[in-house]
Amino acid sequence: MKHTLTPQRYLILGAVMLTASVGDTLLSRGMSQVGPVDLHHLGLLLHALTNINVIAGILLLIGFFASYTTALSWADLTFVMPATAFGYVVIALLSRFWLHEYLSPYRWAGIVLIVCAVGFVANGPSRTDHPDLDLMDSGVGR
Fold first, then answer.
1. How distant is the alpha carbon of residue 88 from its chain centre?
2. d(CA 57, CA 111)
3. What are phi and psi of 38, to 5 degrees?
């Protein structure tokens, strides 16, 4: 049973990718401003909650969780994760040009391999056929 992706579902997959990528990048930026946190300085975690980048990152990751659970409600995990793997490219670009991190050629090669591998999975159905689960969903056997 192959489901077609509607424009709304493409938007959900895009939201999963962008909210996770930008949210993680904001958290990284905010925590680099806060400084190292260890068992002896746990109070810095409370201080981190006053950093605007950390707050924005947390809010975006809440948005990620909402869009991710929405995508999982109509598609298998084995479809959703590869379909949003382009987020690795977004994180790499944000890290390189916004956070000014160095990315080695090996990291770039790994990102290219991930994106190429997504092509193998992208042509599959968004929900694979599960006869046993479909039977349970129909209420048979209650």
1. 9
2. 23
3. -140, -175
- Each residue's pLDDT tens digit, 20-53: 999 999 999 999 999 888 888 788 888 899 999 9
How much of the chain is in helix, strand and coil states, percent to nearest 5? 75, 0, 25
Cβ–Cβ under 8 Å, residues 98 and 90: no
Interatomic CA distance for residues 48 and 52, integer angstroms:
9
Q: What is the pLDDT of residue 45?
A: 86
Q: Residues of 24-33 as b/e, b for ≥16 C-beta within 10 angstroms?
A: bbbbbbbbee
pTM of the model as a whole: 0.78
Two tokens, residue 60? 């975006």
